[in-house]
Amino acid sequence: MSTLDEAHRQIRDFTGGSLRTRVAELETTLQGTDRSRLEPLYKSEAISPSLLQCALVLKQAASQVNEVVHALGILLSLPYILRNGEVVQALSLAAGNTGRPFDLETDLRIAHFKFIDWKGGPESIRQNQLFKDFYSLAELQTPKERYLYVVGIEHPEKFFAGGRALRSVMSRNNKLWTEFVKQYGERFATVRDYYRFRQASVKMVDLSKIVPCFPTGLVSDEE
């Protein structure tokens, strides 16, 4: 098993600083190659099962980094969002499905946090998760304030103002879609329709504006 440092070194040596360039070179090199020439070619290009293992080591480490980003992001936000005397009742610091309904619950508020490096493309999976978090906040019957904390608000606002079909947004979550249809039937067709209806229920806050250490677009692959 490769150590993290060794895995990083081997992948760095393999990519040569630019994975895009390296892949393009390999694609060209392998054109016209038959099976008999693969072994010496792979040897000269340092392509081996151990290199794949190195990539898997880094992938696992990256997923743990995303967990750390989520946990630290919430923890470093608390001094800036909690009011004097506000008491934390529950925290869910691990990203993803933890069994707890919200990332933060206090005696005054419930909240979800999304630390996403938005790329500006379709990003449907991230949008789906963002909608799910908004929906869970908006639909809960509670006297507490509801917050959806993001880092960089441009892309979330664009998504909620857009015309993506709700059926598409919930297509991978049958439970959520069934619940939504039971509640609203065909009343809403797009994200924009539902968001306009519930917008006042949830305060969407850009943490990069209030937490000094957060850059806009805090890097994470959180989904």
Instruction: Please tally the helical runs, counting DSSP H or I stretches of 4 or more residues.
Output: 9
Quaternary organisation of the protein chains: single chain
Beta strand %: 5-15%
Q: How many domains?
A: 2
Radius of gyration: 22 Å
- Helix and strand content put the structural class at alpha/beta
Which bin fits the share of residues in helices? Answer: 40-55%
Strand order, largest beta sheet: 1-2-3-4-5
> Distance between termini?
28 Å
N-to-C order of helices and strands? HHHHEEEHEHHHHE
Question: What is the average of the pLDDT values?
Answer: 90
User: How would a textbook summarize the main sheet?
Assistant: 5 strands, mixed
Poorly predicted spans: none
Number of strands: 5
> What spatial form do the alpha-carbon principal axes imply?
elongated
Fold and architecture overview:
It contains 9 helices and 5 strands; from the N terminus they run ααααβββαβααααβ. With 223 residues, it is an alpha/beta fold. It has 2 domains: 4-47, no CATH class; 62-209, no CATH class. The protein has a 5-stranded mixed sheet with strand order 1-2-3-4-5.
